[in-house]
Amino acid sequence: MYHPISSEVRLERRIRRIERFLQLAAKRLPPDEESEEPQGVDEDGIAFITECEGCELEPYYDQAGYLTVGVGHLLDGPDDPYNRTITQEESDDLLTGDLAETEDCLDACISVPVDQNQYNACASLTFNIGTGAFSDSTLLKKLNASDYLGAADQFLVWNKITVDGEKVVSEGLSNRREKERELFLTEC
């Protein structure tokens, strides 16, 4: 289950992530390759999530019927201020905010060492299924029990969408989960 962290720690992490994101975006500094523990979703992870989600500057309904814009940013309905054509910069800002929530969840939930690829794969899944679903997942339980292969296999079960009240396999999600599993198992 997701356990909230203190406001001070959350603010400190967000500031660190935003600073790092801005540095990477401006290509002023390379990613910190000396750090053993991931400090958040890195540039490769952002590219991976963007490739999986796609980037649409016009609002659209995703395959599950959710009003979406940018890189998988869910809108709060037709009155949402972003329910319009947005700029690439706005899409990037929305993604940064959405990833901060994802990273907060991963930082609070994952209690075992993970490398950058494992972190990015978990972030991609969490970004797509939501923090609540990830924090209650068998994948997380297996991961925290140091069953890395068992956790990797759990990516594959998250391949369904709800259509007319029934869970049905989505080919697109099946393909995405295979890619996430492969990334999770790829050594850095």
Structure description:
It is a single chain. The chain has 188 residues and is mainly alpha-helical. The protein has a single domain, classed as Orthogonal Bundle (Lysozyme), CATH 1.10.530.40. The protein is built from 8 helices and 5 strands; from the N terminus they run H-H-E-E-E-H-H-H-H-H-E-E-H. The protein has a 3-stranded antiparallel sheet. A two-stranded antiparallel sheet has the order 4-5. Strand 1 and strand 2 form a beta hairpin. Helix 3 (88-109) crosses helix 4 (116-129). The longest helix has 22 residues, at 88-109. The chain is globular, with a radius of gyration of 16 Å. The two termini are 28 Å apart. Residues 1-5 and 24-33 have low confidence and may be disordered.
The unreliable regions are 1-5, 24-33
CATH class: Mainly Alpha
Provide the residue-averaged pLDDT: 87
N-end to C-end Cα span? 28 Å
Instruction: Provide the CATH architecture.
Output: Orthogonal Bundle
* CA-based gyration radius: 16 Å
In terms of quaternary structure, the protein is single chain
In the sheet with the most strands, the strands line up as: 1-2-3
Strand content: 5-15%
Total E-strand runs: 5
SSE succession = HHEEEHHHHHEEH
- What's the number of domains? 1
What count of helical segments does DSSP give? 8
- Rough outline: globular
CATH topology: Lysozyme
Largest sheet report: 3 strands, antiparallel
**Helical fraction:** 40-55%
Which structural category fits the helices and strands?
Answer: mainly alpha
